[in-house]
Amino acid sequence: MRLPSDSDIPLDRVILLLALALFLLISPFMLWWARDTAPWYLPYLFWALLIGLTAWLQTRRRKP
Fold it and tell me: Fewer Cβ in 10 A, N or C end of the chain?
């Protein structure tokens, strides 16, 4: 079994972030935040969370 190298770690984070985005935006969970009684800013909050996580992961990325 091959040990993960340093270059594999950022890819794992990207895949996890993509899975989170799919969960929030495509799953039945979307019905909860897209309903009429939800606050108007809730979809923007989820987008801000995804953008913030992406920015945070990029700043933590190791530089060669």
Answer: N
